[in-house]
């Protein structure tokens, strides 16, 4: 007997709720310390970086709206095994995001902090992923997609994942400029999304 749709509806809502509670909660905590966390498309930035960040912001806001619409309107072509896999991926994404945000402490920013002084974080979860927070976004997006698969949500998910990847590429340029050899060494031993590299 297939699992009740309401279980997956509740699972998706909780996954999104916990994920964005971590996101907003961290921003509020940092604001109390005088830290401006949201640096997306803010300040003096190159045209390329500003364009990437503004489109990424639109994509990431849009995908949440589409996800919620799909969840509440029961817009899905998924079957139970897909939904179970999606719920597992979503939960993993929330856990990874929480660990990443906690590990970065006050160096965490949304967007590239051109004028802020932050530290290069390479410990904890960052030993096995240079971008665990972005990985977490991807897992949550893909998880909800699997639970409530339809072609519209697929298009928005692909758009979101691509824009997050382009943002990673911009951040890598920034980190190379800011931290120099220390970041280049880090790149050599830790993969962009997941895994350690063999070093001689």
Descriptive overview:
- The protein has 200 residues and is mostly helical.
- It has a single domain (5-30, 45-106, 118-189), classed as Four Helix Bundle (Hemerythrin (Met), subunit A) (Up-down Bundle), CATH 1.20.120.
- The chain contains 6 helices and no strands.
- The chain has helices spanning 5-32, 47-72, 80-104, 132-147, 151-179, 181-189.
- Helix 1 (5-32) packs parallel to helix 3 (80-104) and helix 2 runs antiparallel to helix 5.
- It is globular and about 50 Å long.
- The model has no long low-confidence stretch (mean pLDDT 92).
Please write out the topology:
Layout lengths: L4 H28 L14 H26 L7 H25 L27 H16 L3 H29 L1 H9 L11
How many strands, what sense, and barrel or not for the largest sheet?
none
Count of distinct structural domains: 1
Helical residue percent? 55-70%
Assign the CATH topology.
Four Helix Bundle (Hemerythrin (Met), subunit A)
Strand portion: under 5%
CATH class: Mainly Alpha
CA gyration radius, whole angstroms = 18 Å
Return the average pLDDT rounded to an integer.
Answer: 92
For the secondary structure, the number of strands is 0
The number of helical segments is 6
Q: Report the CATH architecture.
A: Up-down Bundle
Query: Helix and strand string, N-terminal first?
Result: HHHHHH
**Computed structural class:** mainly alpha
Low-confidence spans: none
Write down the overall geometry: globular
Q: Termini, distance in Å?
A: 53 Å
